[in-house]
């Protein structure tokens, strides 16, 4: 089937008949919208993106804010959301159809993650699936046909899950200095080293791993000598240990330290050429920035919806608090920042998708757009979440109103997968031509 043909999950979305997303005559409720948030302007999106949004919103309506608040409290993994999305074929939204995916692009995948987050699921809901969407992109592009068939269908049908292993405790954002080694040993590689902040490692049975195959001192450029692997992540095999990290938000999805000690992986876990892993993984990293931008937007719109509803209803000094410009203007400002970041986000996703077939769109242009979008969306989300908490006054601090959870979670897109500061370093150097500052 060609990319233009109708994919499985897309078909499903078309078959279902959805109720009107939102009715202005509905009685006031400060709970999140049951289907789709009316605040986000949907003009200009493609029919496919809108159908993705509608179908995902319908699935997410079975997982209300209370579900996410309870899972945040207990730290229990949201297995049910992953199951519901994989059952309907959504995990493979941006993976090829010959593997069971839908063959759509990052533009549609971003809309999917955006809508999940916006439903009130926030970063926890989005992060429970997002590595399966972006970390698989370089595998789909650079693996051999045999590897793709072996590695991807079970992720798409939900039988297995993948985590993404890049960050290390001793190198931080200096990815080119990664120390985890994969040393060739006959038909295997032996992996030794430590990763940190690996999301979903407790539930994943595979990992997309970036490790050094040639020591830094022996390569011409630091970007060489890193290799990408798709490995079985078998916690019963010797040489692999995990330690959970207690964290501020998104607690339903585990974050972990991962320790490798001569952990054996077959040599056919290598994706693409040995030593070329950094270039290969960039393909997934740019996709991840778009998805995270979408997730941040979702949180921002969700928070703003709650705040604007509350500000309309809450009467103090004889009038709705939203009648005060001190409440109204910051919310209006937050809305405009979200809308601007939304344009940047979907522009970046479109460039990413078009660059597959249009050689005039360079990797550098895609990188600048994806990084800028992630930065802008994260900042807009933070503004919206912070102002929502303040607009709700004391109730903004109460768990039952959910905006405090959104605020805690909206720090993630500001920090990961790349920080605000590093994005500014990148734009300063690569776009403005200023001296490299790091
Ligand atoms: C919830 C969560 C989930 C995550 N999931 C994953 C995952 O699944 N897989 C994975 O591989 N990683 C994951 N990460 C890791 C994440 O990508 C890193 O935390 C992030 O890249 C920042 O790296 P660091 O924490 O080592 O920061 P550091 O490199 O230690 O930087 C600390 C601070 O210093 C600043 N800084 C450093 N150098 C400079 C400079 N030259 N100029 C200006 N500022 C500078 C940074 O911007 C940052 O603010 C996750 C992180 C979080 C919080």
UniProtKB/TrEMBL annotation:
Residues 163-262 form the Acyl-CoA oxidase/dehydrogenase middle domain. Keywords: FAD, Flavoprotein, Oxidoreductase. Its cofactor is FAD. The keyword Flavoprotein applies. PANTHER family: ACYL-COA DEHYDROGENASE, ACYL-COA DEHYDROGENASE FADE4-RELATED. Pfam families: Acyl-CoA_dh_1 (PF00441), Acyl-CoA_dh_M (PF02770), Acyl-CoA_dh_N (PF02771). GO terms for molecular function: acyl-CoA dehydrogenase activity; flavin adenine dinucleotide binding. This is Acyl-CoA dehydrogenase. Residues 46-159 form the Acyl-CoA dehydrogenase/oxidase N-terminal domain. The keyword Oxidoreductase applies. GO terms for cellular component: plasma membrane. InterPro entries: Acyl-CoA_Oxase/DH_mid-dom, Acyl-CoA_Oxase/DH_mid-dom_sf, AcylCo_DH-like_C, AcylCo_DH/oxidase_C, AcylCoA_DH/ox_N, AcylCoA_DH/ox_N_sf, AcylCoA_DH/oxidase_NM_dom_sf. It comes from Amorphotheca resinae ATCC 22711. The lineage of its organism: Eukaryota, Fungi, Dikarya, Ascomycota, Pezizomycotina. Transmembrane segments: none annotated. Residues 275-431 form the Acyl-CoA dehydrogenase/oxidase C-terminal domain.
């Amino acid at each position: 089937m060609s990319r233009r043909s109708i994919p499985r999950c897309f078909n499903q979305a078309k078959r279902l008949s959805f109720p009107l997303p939102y009715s202005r005559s509905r009685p006031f409720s400060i709970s999140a919208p049951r289907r789709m948030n009316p605040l986000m302007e949907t003009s200009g999106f493609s029919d496919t993106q809108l159908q993705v949004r509608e179908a995902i919103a319908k699935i997410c309506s079975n997982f209300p804010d209370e579900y996410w608040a309870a899972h945040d409290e207990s730290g229990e993994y949201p297995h049910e959301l992953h199951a519901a999305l994989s059952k309907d074929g959504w995990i493979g939204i941006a993976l090829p159809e010959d593997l069971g995916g839908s063959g759509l692009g990052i533009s549609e995948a971003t809309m999917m993650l955006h809508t999940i987050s916006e439903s009130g699921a926030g970063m926890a809901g989005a992060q429970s699936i997002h590595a399966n969407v972006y970390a698989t992109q370089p595998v789909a592009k650079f693996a051999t046909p045999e590897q793709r068939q072996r590695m991807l269908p079970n992720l798409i049908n939900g039988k297995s899950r993948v985590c993404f292993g890049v960050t290390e405790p001793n190198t931080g954002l200096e990815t080119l200095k990664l120390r985890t080694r994969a040393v060739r040993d006959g038909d295997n590689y032996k992996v030794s080293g430590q990763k940190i902040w690996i999301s979903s490692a407790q539930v994943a049975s595979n990992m997309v791993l970036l490790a050094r195959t040639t020591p830094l001192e022996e390569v011409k450029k630091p970007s060489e000598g890193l290799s990408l692997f798709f490995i079985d992540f078998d916690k019963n095999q010797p040489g692999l240990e995990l330690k959970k990290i207690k964290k501020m938000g998104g607690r339903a999805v585990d974050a972990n330290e991962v320790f490798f000690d001569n952990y054996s992986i077959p040599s056919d876990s290598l994706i693409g050429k040995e030593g070329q892993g950094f270039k290969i993984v960039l393909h997934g990293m740019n996709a991840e920035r778009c998805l995270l931008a979408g997730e941040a937007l979702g949180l921002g719109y969700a928070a703003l919806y709650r705040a604007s509803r509350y500000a309309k209803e809450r009467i103090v000094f004889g009038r709705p608090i939203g009648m005060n410009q001190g409440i109204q203007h910051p919310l209006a400002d937050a809305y405009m920042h979200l809308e601007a970041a939304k344009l940047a986000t979907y522009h970046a996703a479109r460039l990413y998708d078009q660059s597959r077939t249009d050689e005039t769109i360079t990797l550098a242009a895609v990188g600048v757009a994806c990084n800028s979008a992630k930065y802008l969306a994260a900042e807009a989300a933070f503004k919206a979440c912070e102002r929502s908490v303040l607009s709700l006054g004391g109730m903004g601090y109460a768990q039952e109103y959910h905006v405090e959870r959104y605020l805690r979670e909206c720090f993630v897109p500001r920090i990961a997968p790349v920080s605000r500061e590093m994005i500014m370093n990148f734009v300063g150097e690569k776009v403005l031509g200023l001296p490299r500052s790091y």
